[in-house]
Amino acid sequence: MTDFLDMVLLARLQFAFVVSFHIIFPAFTIGLASYLAMLEGLHLKTGREIYMDLYRFWVKIFAVSFGMGVVSGLVMSYQFGTNWSLFSEKTGNILGPLLGYEVLTAFFLEASFLGIMLFGRKKVGPVLHFASTCIVAFGTLISAFWILAANSWMQTPAGYEIRDGIFFATDWLEVIFNPSFPYRFVHMVLAAYLTTSTVVASVAALHLLRNTKPAHAMVMFKMAMGFLVVVVPLQILAGHEHGANVYEHQPIKLAAMEGHWETWNGNAPLLLFGMPNQEKQENDYAVEIPKVGSWIVTGSFDGTIRGLKEWPASEHPPVAIVFWSFRIMVGIGMLMLFIGYVGAFLLWRTDITRHTLFLRLCFMSGPAGFLAVITGWITAEVGRQPYTVYGLLRTVDSVSPVTASAVGTSLIVFVFVYSIVFTAGSYYLFKLAWAGPSEGEGRPPHKPKLATWMAPDEGDVAAAEVRS
Amino acid sequence: MDYVDLPMVWAFLLAIAVFMYVLLDGFDLGVGILFPFAESDGDRDIMMNSVAPVWDGNETWLILGGGGLFAAFPKAYAALMPAVYMPIGFMLIALIFRGVAFEFRFKASGSGRRIWDQAFHWGSVVATFAQGLVLGALVQGINLEQGRFAGGMFDWLTPFAFVTGCALVWGYTLLGACWLVIKTEGRLQAWARRAGLVAVAVTLLMMAVVSFWVPALDAAAADRWGLRYPEIDWSTLLPLTPVPVLVGLVAWQLVRSLRNESTYSPYLWTVALFMLGYVGLLIGIFPYLVPYDLSIHEAAAAPNSQGLLLVGALVMLPVILAYTAYVYWIFRGKVTADAGYH
Predict the structure, then answer these.
(1) pLDDT tens string A49-66
(2) Has residue B1 been placed in a domain?
(3) What CATH number does residue B150 fall under?
(4) What would the mean pLDDT of A205-219 be, rounded to a whole number?
(5) Average pLDDT value for residue range A128-134
(6) Which residue has the higher pLDDT, B229 or A155?
(7) Is residue B220, in this structure, part of any structural domain at all?
(8) Can you give the pLDDT at residue B129?
(9) Cα A347 → chain centroid
(10) Residue A422, domain member (yes or no)
(11) Strands A160-163 and A166-169
(12) What is the mean pLDDT of residues A68-77?
């Protein structure tokens, strides 16, 4: 029995690890693909080379990130079977077709046109190349559509029936457009766009601070700030609506997010800080604003918020994790709001390059979007526990008949491999970002010759000549 | 759709998806296997550039294989994956190293580049070998009880699986060599032809070993081929003789095309060779999806699930094949050293 519980825990840890690692890349490439399409479109429209220089610069970063996203995503498509085979068997009728559609409508599209996007510039001409970039960007959104439909169904299942413990679909439109899906889709796509714009802002700030390529850096910085000004408020609105949806459909998760153990029939406080204590079922060191909680969650001071104690402890998710990851995510949202509006104001009224402190903040905030995405997903996924399909299929009834040692060993191997690959990838990405965009790369060279990255080492050339 | 045998249609579609994967990712894995044996770094650049624009699309067929099995036959997916837990793990890790090597190699310099060269090569070798192990584990049969995996974590580790692993490494090497014959010229192409000849010889030997071994693994397979060692049932075996005869003919044409100046023929003959081997394997395990316990019909998803996805597959697969062909057409012709991006 202990071995079984260890196995469940290890399988959960492994899934959490590989999915957290994976989500970093799509969260970035969804936004970056659209940004690249925008840059290339602006280049086609205005003819200004600066947009092409920026495209050339970001496409290298895109290629590395996309590659890491593909290989870590491949791992995900086999995780369901290796560690969660009972989950696969029971939900396969419903989730299988959704994931199948993702492969058929998105993965092939992205993978195939990525080839043209990266290597086909000289072969297809500017308009077709722009079309390829747009197709890749569109593919990333289709992919998000299906995978979020599948995830949302696990949160708010609809359009199904259960026979002999197996899920069957009764209405596909209800399955796909289940109650939480529209909110989650909008929230996640906006999050991906914001993640990209904080990275763009960070790289732009780096080059403004170092005064390398100031013209290029300024274009990037303006685009990023403009984007933040418009999209952060939209995201706050989307997040709020998503929260209202959780309140309606997943009240236990909402109680954990807000840290409410007791039910409040109106005038619930808003917890700013606290240490949820799962055993005593109360919060230690709570700091709260009276009455505001009900208003924020329900839109009225009289709104009821049900507390965790309404359900048996066996139905509670790990409250502290949900409570804190939610707060980190919201905090980062506020940071983005601050950066966007202050940045826009400074651009409008002053010379931004003089505000080195603010630029440093922008530079340091590069990873903020990633952190917000990961903590947001931790809130959503840990908040769904102890179920894989909310309220219907328990996590302990979802795992594979494999041993704890097999899952533990593979977890260690994945951690080891991912740290090597992730470190190397980050190193190359940082090197590319540090080098910054270069001018005129996009124009055809006067004399075709081997690019520097392509040139073999001198020793090898000599050796090859000797041999031939 | 009551009159359509959906499980059979899906089994057929999945068989095609797996075959597409083998033909397409097979050659880029094969290029990775051959990689360190090339004569110069310049050749290696060309080899890598010949597959760089297409490997990602090729690998997507593997996701379709895994995802398609999950979608159309969730019971088979759930029964099979725990059984091949370790080989699948090896394959995924190897594919990670190999996949990132495409990008990292060109960003690195000096010793860093050597590391990613090795990652590309060993990633290709291990991924291929692990796929061969999965194939071996499947053909030798998986221990199920009431449709769920009931064996041990090391059931796949047998001499037979080791041989199928090696066989696939040589088979992909052959595909890789034939791909290079298409995409390169001069000294490198001549080298690829020589490598291809070696690979044909070993692949044929491996195919023969596996063919005679399979009947010894399982009684049903033995009856199907008429080889219940040491007895030979000639009335069953004789009608099947066209298969090895065809293999011989195809192999002869393949060797000929590698020795004369043909560009595309070696790859096409290799496809024919793979198809014969593949059909032979499928005959051996039909009608099981997880041999020799879970059949295609037993493992099938609900009809409305298979039906929904079939509509998508029938619409999307022709589109996918069309734009895949378009991408290959865009990148047609010989690869030169400066074919990379930026």
Answers:
(1) 889 989 989 998 998 888
(2) no
(3) 1.20.1630.10
(4) 88
(5) 92
(6) A155
(7) yes
(8) 96
(9) 29
(10) no
(11) antiparallel
(12) 83
pLDDT, greater one: A283 or B126: B126
SS3 state at A71: helix
| Total domains, chain A | 1
| Least Cα separation, residue A87 to chain B (angstroms) | 8
Q: At what angle do helices B111-140 and B265-285 cross, to 10 degrees?
A: 40
Look up residue B38 and give its DSSP letter: S
Quickly state the pLDDT bin for A2 (edges 50, 70, 90): low
Q: Does B64 reside within a domain? A: yes
State mean pLDDT over A231-240. 91
Helix axes A108-119, A49-82, angle to 10 degrees: 150
B214 domain-assigned? yes
Tokens of A255: 């109680």
> In terms of residue numbers, what domain contains B224?
6-330
- Contact residues, chain A, for B81 at CB < 8 Å: 78, 80-82, 85, 88, 400
Helices (H), A125-213: 126-155, 172-176, 181-210
Measured between alpha carbons, how far is B254 from B257 in angstroms, rounded to an integer? 5
Is there a contact between B341 and A121 if contact means CB atoms under 8 Å apart?
yes
Query: Using 50, 70 and 90 to split pLDDT, how confident is the model at B131?
Result: very high
- What is d(CA A156, CA A180) in angstroms, rounded to the nearest whole number? 6
CB–CB contact B106 A453 (8 Å): yes
The verdict on residue A296 lying in a domain is: no
B80 touches chain A (CB under 8 A): yes
Output the pLDDT for position B342: 39
> Comparing C-alpha atoms, which of A73, A196, A58, A199 is closest to residue A133?
A58
CB contact under 8 A, B338 and A460: no
Interface A–B counts its CB contacts (< 8 A) at: 265
Closest CA in chain A for residue B119 = A421
Whole domain around residue A343: which residue ranges? 179-251+311-397
Q: Which residues of B touch A120 (CB under 8 A)?
A: 53, 330-331
ipTM above 0.95, yes or no: no
CB contacts, 8 Å: A64 with chain B: 103-104, 107
Quote the percentage of chain B above a pLDDT of 90: 45
Best probe of the A interface among B20, B60, B98, B332, by most A CBs < 10 A, is: B60
Least confident of A126-130, A367-371, A451-455, B7-11: A451-455
What's the total number of domains in chain B?
A: 1
- Nearest-Å Rg of the Cα atoms of chain B is 21
Query: Pick from A63, A400, A467: which is nearest to B103 by CB?
Result: A63
Residue A230 lies in a domain: yes
Q: Is residue A361 part of a domain?
A: yes
CB contact under 8 A, B103 and A64: yes
Contact between A417 and B305 using a beta-carbon 8 Å cutoff: no
Taking residue A39's Cβ as centre, other Cβ atoms within 10 Å add up to 24
Residues B24, B58: contact at Cβ < 8 Å? yes
